[in-house]
Amino acid sequence: MVTYVATLDVPRHIVEFLASLLAAHRRRIGTPKRSRALGAFRQAVLVLRWFRERGCVHCLARDAGISQATGYRYLHEGIDVLAGVRENGNDLWFSQRHKAFGGNIQFLSAPDGTPLWVSEVEPGSTPDITAARIHALPALYKAAADGLPTLADKGYIGAGIGIRIPVRRPMGSSEQALHIDTRMFNTLLRHVRALGERAAAELKQRWRTLQHVTLSPSRIGDIARAALVLNGIWK
Asked: Which end of the chain has the lower number of beta carbons within 10 A, N or C?
């Protein structure tokens, strides 16, 4: 066997960008340090070689000193993290609001605060209103047509028929800028919604893994639904 040095004709900042995505993905899914056959940088090189050279995975894996099965797994992982990047370069699962990786699930409770339903998970960058339109609003519109409105927070502005939300104060103004009747409406709505908010908080307190999920964010919906089942049995 003869070894030789080759140059990957890809700008280094692209390799570093992909390596950073892979490293973040490993942290997100809880990969122990030094447990992988390749570091994030060398995995990025493998993935980018495949994109540039159309090389056989067996050859790429051989050059990297890993098995063909691991090569395929690393390649698919690289494709997945790249396909999950938004136009601004951030990972879809990264929430700018919370400055952390995570998921967005929608939660619904009965008027008495009993937890009823949690949605499938959407990437953490997904706004509440977008996640609600995907998973919740079609059913809630039907309920509204039958005379049962839904109370929500300000994240659902523009949700449509039957979704009751607090009225926002003018930008740069205090709550006192609102008419007294509007302030009273907001107060009453928050008071009634408090039972539902408390139900969500109690669910996270009883099943503390919901406070900081250590598995892939893509499992958050399943984890929340499992906690909901356990909660029902507990009661």
From this structure: N
Q: What is the pLDDT of residues 43-80, one digit of tens each?
A: 999 999 898 887 789 989 999 999 999 999 999 999 98
Separation between Cα atoms, residue 101 and residue 186, nearest integer Å: 32
Residues ≥6 apart with Cβ < 8 Å to 61: 46, 67, 68, 70, 71, 72
Would you say 103 and 218 are in contact if contact means Cβ atoms under 8 Å apart? yes
What is the rounded distance in angstroms from the CA atom of residue 189 to the CA atom of residue 183? Answer: 10
Helix (H, G, I), strand (E, B) or coil at 185: helix
Tokens of 151: 């109370």
How far apart, in whole angstroms, are the C-alpha atoms of residue 13 and residue 1?
Answer: 32
Q: Report DSSP letters for 20-53, one per residue.
A: HHHHHHHHHTTPPTT-SSS-HHHHHHHHHHHHHH
- Residues 179-233 have pLDDT tens digits of 999 999 999 999 989 988 888 888 888 888 888 887 778 888 999 998 988 888 7
